[in-house]
Amino acid sequence: MNDRERLLAIMAGKSPDRIPWIPRLAIWYEAQVRRGTLPGKYRGWSLRQIEHDLGVGTPAREGRIYRSELRDVEVERQERGDEMLTRYVTPVGEVSTLHRGSEMLERGGITDRREVEHMIKGPEDYPVVEYIVQHTELTPTYEEYLAYEAEIGGDGVPLVSIGASPIYRIMRELIGYNDVFYHIYDHPDLVDHLLGVLEEQAQVVQQITLDSPARLVLHGEHFDSRMTPPPFFRKYMLPYFQPFARRMHERGKTLACHADADTSLLLELIIESGFDMAECFVTAPMVPLTLARARARLGDKVIIWGGIPSVMLCDPVTDGEFEAYMLDLFRAIAPGDAFILGVADNVMAEGKLERVERVTEMVAEYGTCPIRLPE
Questions:
Q1: DSSP character for 311?
Q2: Which domains does the chain show, CATH number per domain?
Q3: For residue range 253-277, what is the model confidence (pLDDT) as tens digits?
């Protein structure tokens, strides 16, 4: 089996020949290129070439099934040193965002500027943002997706992101974590109306997704036991995801959430929502949830893609601690069904490449399904 065949088998509820080993190396790779510290043999290599040499699959996260374009909205951008000010001018008013770069993050392979000022700063911004949402045209790009899928070939299955859920767009993109709960409390009618507008747009995205050739879809991200606790999740997210999950399953598609935060209090709700997979699934010591506990609760209902917290590949974790962790991991995931081995969230800039290579060796030694470790 190749990695595409392994993923498709797991998505169909079947056992692969061995567990797939598909870490995200993009941040590590970008950091080494920027620092000029790529190992000598890899100088001038692409990330895909390095993945092949390391014996890992590719996460295939660049596939897109639609593009968006603003209509009747003027966008003005102004560079200010390491900052980018963007103004959105509409017939009903204007809003702005401010993104700020960081040399330290860029050297660490994280190149996106951070959004430090969001579109919605006060009540007067809501109708402008709603206008922008309602004047965003979404166009399917299925041919581009198929070309990307062909490029990935046997190395994986494209994981197609269709963005965050409507409430999470409000939280992260439009208001920001620092202020969103104040808005929910102080301006509930405005938040609810904006949520309705975003849900109308989301229905268009969902239909494009359902009609698309994509098999594996990422929708729902950064669920966190503190920021999206069970009562909040049950009110705002469960009613949104459940019907979409049902429609996805009717089309034979797999619905994944991006689980790189503390899901210790949310496992039941992830199951109840209808998610088939939790990718970039992070566990202890980075969050208060062990892989063994997650496997015991999720079983084969939700595929886990992850299992290796990124800190395990870095100092001060010793080689002995790393080896012991990995052996415990294989015991926790036995017999190996509904599991894709990965690093949560990414192999970071300080990650030791020799440990990635060691995982490849251990998968060859212990990863054949069904997994049976020596006593």
A1: G
A2: 3-69+135-366 (3.20.20.210), 72-122 (no CATH)
A3: 999 999 999 999 999 999 999 999 9
